[in-house]
Amino acid sequence: MRHGANLVDGLVVPAIAVLATAVVFGVFVAIDGVNPVDVFALMIKGSFGSWFSLQNTLLRASPLLLTALCTALPAQMGMVVIGGEGALVLGGLAAVAVGVPLAGTALPVWLIQLAMALAAMFVGGLVIGFVGLLRQWRGVSETISSLLLTYIAIAVFNQLVEGLMRDPSSLNKPSTAALPDDVMLASIPGTNVHWGLMFGVVFCLLTYILLYHTTFGFSARIVGGNVRAARMAGLPVGTLVLAVTFLGGAAAGLAGMIEVAAVQGRANASLAAGYGFTGILVAFLARQNPLGVIPVAVLLGGIAASGGLLQRRLGLPDATTLVLQGILFVILLSSETLSGRIRLRPRAAP
Amino acid sequence: MSEVILGWWGVPIAVMAGAIRVSTPFLFVSLGECITEKSGRINLGLEGTLVMGAMAGYGTAFLSGSPWLGVLAAGVVGMLFGCLHALLCGLPKVNDIALGIALMLFGTGLAFFLGKPFIQPHAPGLPAFDLGWWSAIPQLREALKVNALFLAGVVLAPALRWGLDHTRWGMIVRIVGDSADAALALGYSPNRVRLAATAFGGFMAGVGGSFLSLYYPGAWSESLSSGQGITAVALVIFARWNPMYCFWASLLFGGASALGPALQSVGVTAGYYLFNAAPYMLTLAILIAASSSRRRLAGTPSELSVTR
After folding, report:
1. Which candidate, A90, A87, A94, places its Cα nearest to that of A158?
2. How far apart (Å, rounded) are the C-alpha atoms in residues A223 and A239?
3. Testing the interface with B: which of A79, A127, A142, A159 to mutate, by most B Cβ within 10 A?
């Protein structure tokens, strides 16, 4: 019986929400004078319809996997952290700061990449770990402090990119020095998709195992369920909060490293592209479940990937995919209210 | 009139000019959000509402030729967004923070989508009052050109402060924000009161957006807002949910964001971006200093999800 309820909440409710989104968005484009059927056909073609578009989708999903964890991990402890964007940009910057000097040395490439990833994760972890610390130490709301830290982190990022770490030859768009091609993350053989996607998937899987199959994860979830009970049971609440927020920040920091070391090649303003904010919504739509993050991130990557085709073929503005994302988020989040209320079979008489 | 060389004196004048000019959107968004948060709900979607308001205000002013009609349209569009947030958050199990971020994306996307035709044309702007006629220094005169919306905000801030403290409506909003159960016991529906408070917040955010497109910078573009909507949400916390403090905090935030460019003009270029982030650092520092793991900030609405 319990299992049946999970099935309804996990599949039927989101399915209704996606259907409702399709209807609302269909009406929206129809008002704009475009046939909704054409739009949906093109969207499927542009996101999952061909090998090329599928790869595009996966590329766009890759950073979302990790930034979503930045919200999903602290959520296990009942915290709403929205600072993934800040951890991402500073993580990316840390990766360049470590990667560029090391690239000149004789170290093997994998070791340089590892150092970059660790630096990014450490810096990202510090940012969100600080949020956890403030929460534990001063009772500062983690939502507000992480929001403020995002803006502070982006300012620090801009300051360093245009000042101390600026490559003098980058004139129009201030950037750091570029990573040499040989330390960039390679593509998965046979595809255009870089290994960063795999990092994201593995990180999600490991997080799932950590949360649901270890004592650490169990303790963290007890804290999320009832702090007082956790204290009574003698759990180290402060340490758990710090560890989990650090880990969440590390995930977002790693996303920054991947964006720099696989896509951009250097750190500049393009790094703050909003992946951190979209990640928050991915986490909520996945109900803070690290495994659920994977399909949701791919779905949103698909919507983003299909934007180009809509623009070229139907002349729709590039903001169309933003509108669709917005409608989808609003409806999916509102559909939470249906969970636990729909039954496949009528209730048996008592 | 030619510019007078002011040297370092230019810095405080520029900061004052910035405080007046840049603070207006902060002021409107934060006054509205202050009332919303007082009723126990947080609307992070105001960034989207602000951008929607900027687009709707500019579009209406362009089509009708009247900037004030634009301001009204911006407010109405903002109010609709506020109602949407409030109605959806009124459903059980819907998270107001996440829904706010979703509406932020939706509002921004919709404004970009509908605003494409308004990027090029020129719409009539809002008038300004020249309060610096007595001065011979052009920079000072420029700084004292005060726009009408700012003056409206100056009147509104103490009025809201008074209204929250001394009227029946203010009392109801505060009761709902402090204890939904108590409000229910008194016969007030928390959802209905929050709907009104969030609609008001949306209206104000829309008007704040119309200031951006109709006065300063004074044209609709997709890069119009640099996060003023979301900053204003932080500003309300900085102002401890007091409309009068919202006013002073808006001036402070506006002045702080003018400090970087002003210092740059006298040759101090170090730390340009850090000056821009000064308001956020200040807010965080005050939060750290004033919070405690045992009690909350004075004036905090107990029902507010981010402070629970």
Report:
1. A90
2. 11
3. A159
DSSP characters over A189-205: TTSS-BTHHHHHHHHHH
Identify whether B217 is preceded by a cis peptide bond (ω within 30 of 0).
Answer: yes
Give the contacts of B140 (CB within 8 A, at least 6 positions apart). B13, B132
Domain presence at residue A209:
yes
Q: Could you please state the CATH topology (level 3) that the domain comprising B7-133+148-307 is classified under.
A: ABC transporter involved in vitamin B12 uptake, BtuC (1.10.3470)
How many domains does chain A contain in total? Answer: 2
Owning domain of residue A345: 1-34+316-350
**In the prediction, which pLDDT does A152 show?**
92
The DSSP letter of residue B195 is: H
Does A145 sit within 8 Å of B287, measured CB to CB?
A: yes
Q: Do residue B113 and residue A139 have CB atoms under 8 angstroms apart? A: no
Alpha helices by DSSP H, listed for B144-271, are 148-166, 168-178, 180-185, 190-214, 228-238, 243-265
Strand partners, B128: B147
For the segment B86-103, the average pLDDT, to the nearest whole number, is 90
For residues B62-73, average pLDDT: 94
Contact list in A for residue B108 (CB cut-off 8 A) is 322, 326
Based on the domain organization, do A73 and A161 belong to the same domain?
A: yes
pLDDT at residue A344, as a whole number: 65
Distance from CA of A82 to the nearest CA of B (A): 9
Looking at the structure, do residues A324 and A308 belong to the same domain, yes or no? no
Same-domain status, A263 and A329: no
The Cα B74–Cα B133 span in angstroms is 31
Which residues of chain A register pLDDT less than 70? 1-7, 343-350
Identify which has the larger pLDDT, A10 or B11.
B11
Report yes or no: B257 at the A interface, CB cutoff 8 Å: no
